[in-house]
Sequence to fold (375 residues):
Amino acid sequence: MERKKILLYIVAPALVLMGAASYHRIMRNRELSHQRIQKNEGTVTVTLATVENRTFRGSIPFTGTLLAVNRAELKAEVSGRITRVVVQEGDKVGAGSLLCAQDEDELLLAVQAAEAQLAQAQAQAEQAKRDNDRAQSLLEKRSVTKQSAQLAETNYNATMAMTRAAESNLGLAKSRLRKSRITSPIAGEVAKRMVQPGEVLSPGQPVFDVVDNRTLEIQADLPAEVLARIQKGMKASFHISGFDKPFEATLTQISGSVTQDGRTLHVRLEVPNTDGRLKSGLFAEGEILSEAENSRPALPASLLTAIGRDAEVFIAENNIARRRRIQLSGQEQGGWRPVEGLTPGTKVVNMGRELVVDGSKLNVTADSPIASTGN
Fold:
């Protein structure tokens, strides 16, 4: 009897869990089946968004590549074999941090030998100075000949010259050791590593790229005719592929002249990047925003999936879905994006659009709240 009770306590909960799982699986399959039937039969329950006239600031489009304002392309200064590399791509480094070293042991021994030679030369010079001082003192007392005093002075001058030569040799040895240790001149991160241990470097050979991504810039070329419409300090908005929200930039530099053909004006925009989300080398597409405002047809940005400069939507005509390719004529502002190819008041499928095909019959429940709030 006890065994039956134990089995009952074990089996009953298991049966309950299995039953619940089966129920949820059946309900999920029914829902998916219902959605497939709706799509195949052309009847889909959707909400609609309305194309609205929205006020947008005037803009000047641009494209460009993000670059670190502070960046360093490091090259070998001396020839030598790399004995160690202490960083990888992506590593954070501080100003003065060691990145790699060449012939380190050999050059360190050369410095030590030069230090020993200098110490020896200095000792000889000190002894020669004492001998010269004594000889000059004795010459005044006429205890030595003038020739002996001159010989002591000559020996002293020679040892001083040897000391200066030893100091120069030590300076050269230290300079070569310092140049063989490639260090970062800025704080940042290693963007590119181009060397491996054991590799023999030649002077001028590229070894590392180090970038400080905390402040980035975009260098862009604009049509020369916009020169009268732009000025330093203007704000810009741009998009990066893979990021949902736009980023901000500030126009900080306008070239003093246009290109020789008179068609292009070079500008520079600065991009704050304190959180480090953006990286040097990313392609940016955006707009410089002017103070002037104008009204343009727009849709909620969350409804649009860009395909280059275009997007595809489904408009509702007599409860029938019609595929329409539209042009995105500007960047998102305040949650809305200007569009071309649609007039204000046009109804566009919003929620449920992933189940819609061209010609689907629509069961409209209500206009999407986003169309009226812009959130």
Notes: The longest strand covers residues 52-75.
